[in-house]
Amino acid sequence: MTEHELRVSKIENGTVIDHVTGGQSLNVLSILGIDGTEGSVLSIAMNVPSGRLGRKDILKIEDRELSQEEVDVLSLIAPEATINIVRDFEVIEKSRVERPSHVRGILSCPNHSCITSSGEPVTPKFDVLPTGVRCAYCGTILRENLAEHLAKPS
Ligand code: CTP
Ligand code: ZN
What we know:
Elements lengths: L13 E8 L3 H8 L9 E9 L3 E9 L5 H5 L9 E6 L2 E7 L5 E3 L20 E5 L2 E4 L5 E2 L12
Antiparallel strand pairs: 1-3, 1-4, 2-3, 4-5, 6-7, 7-8, 8-9
Bound molecules: cytidine-5'-triphosphate and zinc ion (ZN).
The site of zinc ion has 8 residues, from loops.
């Protein structure tokens, strides 16, 4: 493909999440709570060749502008993601995802003795460390493959 071709067309208005770790875009959608039934136009390209990342995913969500707070949780599974807010076909704002200080309800704790696994109505909460996350209830630390610990959407 030449640089004059686009795999997915430009959008008029909305949010483009670019430079997502290859293969993670469905997890990104799940974290954002988007499953397609909302009816908004959504385009996904997966495992597209990228100079910087080798392979990347791109998500284009039309007619919706995601806030920095909404996208920061994505940094746990797509640390290189860039967020582009598009209005009238122009990128009017570009930012990187930043690690939040903690995340609630996004990840579940793998420790079976943790109160969050006990059937009690306790929302899992993790403190975000420089290189991993720590369960706020039992202290279990997760460093790798966080996507495998995503909580089931409620
Ligand atoms: N994009 C889009 N619709 C638009 C404008 C941009 O879908 N109307 C997409 C582009 O296809 C790209 C992303 O938004 O995936 C960022 O666009 P742009 O900043 O123009 O591209 P780059 O300069 O290549 O971005 P970066 O420097 O972040 O790699
Ligand atoms: Zn725990």
